[in-house]
Give the backbone structure.
Amino acid sequence: MYRKLGHLLNKLGGKGLRRIGIPDEAAFSATSGVPHDPKSWWGPWQSVTNPTEIAKKVCKVNAAQYNQAHHAPF
């Protein structure tokens, strides 16, 4: 019974990614850093909650991470 109730209650919650934060490129200024590099971004952030947009943003970042060693010697 405990497992059944836990399964039913977790159907609504899920354990996936619900929101991501990305630098707000519309608020770019000389003092806010580079919006394509989140480590150096000091400006405002934008929350993305649409699952399709989250998937697009995550895939874009993953492709950049995967290909960053493309020009490195084998």
